[in-house]
Design a protein that fits this description.
Elements lengths: L12 E7 L9 E6 L2 E8 L2 E9 L4 E8 L6 E7 L5 E10 L2 E11 L13 E4 L5 E5 L4 E8 L2 E9 L5 E6 L12 E7 L5 E9 L4 E2 L10 E3 L13 E5 L11 E5 L3 E6 L3 H24 L2 H15 L7 E4 L5 E8 L2 E6 L3 E7 L7 E8 L3 E8 L2 E6 L4 E6 L5 E6 L12 H8 L22 E3 L2 E3 L1 E7 L7 E5 L8 E6 L5 E8 L15 E8 L7 E8 L3 E8 L2 E5 L12 E6 L2 E5 L2 E5 L3 E6 L3 E7 L4 E9 L5 E6 L3 E6 L3 E7 L4 E8 L5 E5 L12 E6 L5 E5 L5 E4 L7 E8 L5 H4 E7 L3 E9 L5 E10 L6 E7 L2 E7 L3 E7 L2 E4 L1 E9 L1 E9 L4 E9 L10 E7 L5 E7 L9 E11 L3 E11 L3 E7 L2 E6 L2 E10 L6 E10 L5 E7 L2 E6 L4 E7 L2 E8 ...
Parallel strand pairs: 25-30
Antiparallel strand pairs: 1-2, 2-3, 3-4, 5-6, 6-7, 7-8, 9-10, 10-11, 11-12, 13-14, 14-15, 15-16, 15-17, 18-19, 19-20, 20-21, 22-23, 23-24, 24-25, 26-27, 27-28, 28-32, 29-31, 33-34, 34-35, 35-62, 36-37, 37-38, 38-39, 40-43, 41-42, 43-44, 44-45, 46-47, 47-48, 48-49, 50-51, 51-52, 52-53, 54-55, ...
Helix pairs in contact: 1-2
């Protein structure tokens, strides 16, 4: 059995797609793929709005939007990765105003005997939207036939190119059909030669043609231009034929190397000629085989091999000045957004002339992208695994940093300014000169890089991401008694330390300066049944302020003389209410513009004049002789708690306040009340919750006669806020809760239970810590779902999921940029942190990267550090060092080395076992005894190796529990080893683990871990 709980939903983005999901609607959507879920956002004027999400079992890789015939909308296909690769076919529908993704078909791609693809695992779709090719296993492609955007059939084809790097359907001339399908293939062969070729695909015959296609002749690519690895693959882009000149055919862009290369497709005459050569070569081979002439057969094969690997010039090319290309997206024909691994973004243009000139327009820097989706005019989505995902705007002119170059470009690469671009391309064909007289195109086919001043990008919306998490520590940061998670996160140029804890995250829409000591606020509508809020009333301990919403991001204050609402004292509650009327012995509830306000001095009713845009008092005020200490208002009932323990219930009739019932409670002074119905849309409630000073109890009263129905047990702190709330109307028995915010910073939830005889009781369900300040509760909607906003020292969103109350997680981020935190350690007693970071300077492809490491201590403590010295050409590190630093805090904090030991490899992890230091070094575990020598400032630590265990591949995780060491091997297994009498003895091993990356002790005999999938 597996027990799975998620504290923080995956925030890393692997893929995205812009699409239309609703038939007959122009509304566009962005679908974002994360590790185990899909998120569907609609494109709204104010930004991306989350419509729904779908959890999926498996590791999701990519998504494709498939057009549904001529209907004008799309279905979705997602690809799940190994060990159980599959395709999932989805459609989008709206039910009861709520969107949801529906599964239409599952297609398993798993093959028991197949060898997983070493490089490319992905899928592509042809431009007609009817054929999809999927690469999961070496030497094989899965072809899926689609009909009206839904699965129709599939078949496998053999692929001679085993080490597949990139794949694309070529854009051929004319309408697509089965005979037009051709695959562009980029691969590296067994001799480490890089080759671009194409193969014709026959759907009726369900096979790839055995001979390469003549549409894109075989092209050997210089290996020195590319950096090939599983994490850094080249990209090929099929460029359609020119719309400007019918004689200009399509071609292929090759990205990912030191140059961007464009190769055009062969014209019909050249294809006929190449096919003739192929036929003649085949004829010679058959004749030689028939005659048994080995020499002639060998000559024919050599001729064919020479033709395959004959060097060919690219039609055009351009230098790529930065790191490896990570991803791209198409803006429209011949225009592409291209980004490198460090988020350097540029627009690549392929013109429609016969020369196919390339232009690279430098735009600016974003988060390191894994996916780019062009949304609408000059707006794009950047999905990231290493940093925050972003929605960016691309400006026609620089938007900031006007005095600095848009991005750094190596000095050896020629560039031009935007002002020179027009002159360069209007100076005629052939060689063109820049304004300063320098020949920009001294090399045939070279494109131009346009580099100006200032960045052309601005961030509109940002989505926080804490991936990839390299290490973490549990720390009680604010001494609340609740541990929070501090993670070492990020990569490339977006390193960060994150404090992940319960809470809610917000995006500022407008700001009002100069207000302090705010205790509460309420939004108000023009009339009861409209959805949009027009005003906001904010209260402090002494006075109230009224604001008017002007636009989505603008708010203005209303002068006290322009409204009859009470602003000279603190407001306890205010709410839009029904225009209730009593007709023929029955109550009717009508839409109206009435508002009820409760202050310490009294209860008052107002009417909103839409013509004047102000609130006007109506009816008689209710002014008691006692101070009002608590108040709660629902749609038609009003409850006041007065000093002395008096409880008063009101309703209204024809714009007048009606006092219905009044009692003196027996529990003492009232601290909080609520009459909010369990269901928010109810017109009235039949029970009231009241809490009291001193006793710290909550009592339930009936609104019929104010009789006491139930009294809770004493709570650990004073209740300061109460709220009845039903999180799920379809499961009201479980989801009906009484939420209590306490003065000590905790929130307690009670199940509101009624037995068969109608007796009410409260069953404590969950306690949530939100810091040290009193917690206040407000009903709200989050991501189109009913929720409760809880606010104390920090805020949290409470919601109902999986038959239980859930509270949101939020992270506070400390950006570290290029300095990437990799390990963190915390000393609880000394409240100290040690952080090890690495920094890699971005370089151009082919230039050696320089990596620098740093170790920082955020307080006084002694910590151990593992150092590795890696020599070029080594398969694995063979030289490292264990360093021990001590901290002194007398007049000033400083750090000094206290001891060291040489090791034969890279140190991956430490653990303390029985007072000795266990160290994971490559495939072994070493145990050292530490001896302290000397006195005061002259003290030093000597390390003596007392035990060694060397029966693994790479020990990357090491955890201790009493005298037991728990090892995580990156290649194969988890092991338990006992350390006793300076000897290491194996207790148990698991040989079935799938690439464990980290483990932690669950108890003395169990571990919890994570693997790469």
């Amino acid at each position: 059995m597996k027990a799975i709980a998620t504290f923080h939903k995956p925030s890393s983005v692997s893929s995205s797609a812009k699409c239309k999901l609703l038939p007959g609607s122009d509304l566009e959507f962005l679908v974002v793929v994360k590790l185990d879920r899909l998120e569907v956002f609609s494109l709204q004027p104010e930004g991306l709005k989350l419509e729904c999400e779908l959890e999926v079992w498996g590791r999701l890789l990519s998504i494709i939007a498939v057009p549904v015939g001529e209907e004008g909308y799309d279905n979705l296909i997602i690809l799940a990765d190994h060990p159980d690769p599959e395709l999932i076919f989805l459609s989008y529908a709206v039910k009861n105003g709520v969107g949801e993704l529906q599964t239409k078909h599952h297609l398993s791609l798993f093959e028991r005997s197949g060898r997983a693809a070493e490089y490319l695992t992905g899928m592509i779709l042809d431009r007609s939207g009817t054929i999809m090719a999927v690469s999961c296993y070496a030497g094989k492609l899965k072809l899926v036939v689609l009909a009206e955007g839904i699965y129709d059939s599939d078949f496998d084809v053999s692929l001679p190119e085993l080490n597949l790097l990139a794949l694309s359907f070529l854009d051929t001339d004319g309408e697509p059909d089965d005979s037009d399908l051709c695959l562009a293939i980029l691969h590296v062969d067994h001799e480490q030669r890089l080759q671009l070729l194409s193969r014709d695909l026959s759907i009726p015959e369900q096979q790839l043609r055995p001979k390469p296609s003549t549409l894109l002749p075989s092209i050997p690519l210089p290996m020195k231009l590319f950096l090939i690895s599983a994490d850094c693959l080249p990209i090929i882009i099929a460029v359609p034929p020119s719309s400007e000149d019918a004689d200009v055919l399509g071609g292929v862009l090759v990205l990912g190397g030191r140059k961007v290369l464009f190769y055009d497709l062969a014209p019909p005459k050249a294809q006929v000629k190449a096919q003739g050569k192929q036929k003649r070569t085949e004829k010679k081979k058959r004749a030689a085989e028939k005659d048994g002439d080995a020499n002639e057969l060998e000559k024919a094969k050599q001729k064919e091999e020479e033709r395959m690997w004959k060097k060919k010039k690219s039609r055009s090319w351009i230098d790529w000045p930065w790191s490896t290309v990570e991803t791209y997206c198409t803006i429209f024909e011949g225009r592409y957004l291209v980004a490198d691994a460090y988020g350097k973004l540029a627009m690549l243009s392929v013109d429609g002339s016969a020369e196919r000139k390339l232009t690279l327009l430098v735009l600016g820097e974003t988060s390191p992208p894994t996916t780019i989706s062009y949304l609408t005019s000059q707006i794009a989505y950047i999905g990231s695994h290493f940093g925050d995902s972003q929605v960016i705007r691309i400006h026609a002119a620089p938007a900031s940093a006007f005095d600095s170059p848009t991005l750094p470009v190596p000095p050896e690469i020629p560039t031009i300014t935007p002002s020179q671009l027009t002159e360069l391309f209007t100076s005629g064909k052939g060689k063109s000169k820049a304004v300063n007289g320098e020949d920009i195109r001294e090399k045939e086919g070279r494109g131009v890089i346009v580099l100006g001043k200032g960045t052309y990008l601005s961030t509109i919306q940002s989505f926080k991401n804490i991936a990839p998490i390299m290490d973490a520590a549990l720390v009680d940061v604010d001494r609340s008694g609740q541990n929070q998670i501090i993670t070492c996160s990020g990569g490339r140029h977006t390193g960060s330390l994150n404090i992940v804890r319960n809470g809610a995250d917000f995006q500022a829409q407008a700001t009002v300066e100069g207000l302090s000591n705010i205790t509460n606020m309420w939004p108000l509508r023009a009339s009861f049944q409209v959805d949009e809020h027009t005003h906001l009333l904010v209260t402090t301990l002494r006075i109230s302020h009224l604001f008017r919403f002007e636009k989505a991001s603008r708010i203005s204050g209303v002068h006290p003389s322009a409204t009859e609402l009470i602003t000279s004292e603190a407001t306890l509650a205010i709410n839009n209410v029904y225009d209730r009327r009593f007709i023929n012995g029955k109550s009717t509830y009508n839409d109206g513009t009435l508002v009820v306000q409760a202050t310490k001095s009294g209860l008052r009713m107002y009417e909103y004049d839409m013509g004047l845009g102000s609130y006007i008092k109506v009816g008689k005020d209710w002014i008691p002789n006692q101070e009002i200490v608590a108040a709660s208002l629902n749609n038609s009932q009003y409850v006041l708690g007065l000093s002395g323990g008096r409880l008063v219930l009101f309703n209204s009739n024809q714009k007048d306040l009606n006092e219905l019932l009044s009692i003196y409670t027996s529990h003492g002074e009232i601290s909080a009340v609520t009459c909010v119905p369990m269901n928010r849309n109810s017109r009235f409630t039949n029970k009231i919750a009241v809490s009291f000073w001193g006793s710290n109890k909550v009592a339930i009263y009936s609104t019929r006669d104010l009789n006491l129905l139930y009294t809770s047990s004493e709570l650990p702190a004073l209740p300061r806020s109460l709220l009845f709330y039903n999180f799920d109307a379809e499961n009201s028995a479980e989801a009906s809760q009484l939420l209590v915010g306490l003065a000590d910073g905790t929130a307690v939830s009670f199940k509101d239970h009624k037995d068969q005889s109608g007796v009410i009781s409260l069953e404590e369900d969950k306690v949530i810590t939100l810091g040290e300040l009193p917690v206040f509760l407000t009903a709200c909607k989050a991501e189109n779902k009913d929720a409760v906003f809880a606010c104390g020292s920090r805020a949290s969103i409470l919601s109902w999921k999986k038959q239980s109350l859930q509270h949101s997680a939020v992270n506070l981020k400390i950006p570290t940029g290029l300095e990437l935190p990799r390990r963190i350690s915390h000393h609880r007693e000394l409240k100290a942190y040690g952080v090890v970071s690495s920094q890699t300077q971005p370089t151009r492809i082919g230039v050696a990267e320089s990596v620098h490491s740093t170790f920082k201590v955020l307080n006084d403590v002694t910590l151990d550090i593992g150092v590795c010295r890696y020599n070029a050409g080594e398969v694995e590190p063979t030289n490292g060092q264990l360093l021990i630093f001590s901290m002194a805090n007398k007049k000033e904090v400083h750090m000094k080395p206290a001891g060291s030991a040489e090791v034969h490899g890279c140190i991956f992890a430490f653990a303390n076992v029985n007072g000795k230091l266990a160290v994971a070094v490559n495939s072994s575990v070493l145990v050292y005894a530490l001896t302290l020598e000397g006195k005061d400032d002259a003290r030093a630590i000597t390390l003596h190796k007392v035990a060694e265990w060397n029966h693994n591949y790479f020990v990357v995780s090491l955890v201790s529990r009493n005298k037991t060491l728990m090892l995580g091997d990156a290649i194969s297994s988890i092991s338990f080893i006992d350390f006793d009498e300076n000897q290491l003895k194996v207790v148990a091993r698991d040989y079935g683990s799938l690439w464990p990356v980290c483990i932690e002790a669950w108890n003395d005999t169990s571990v919890i871990g994570a693997n790469v999938s």
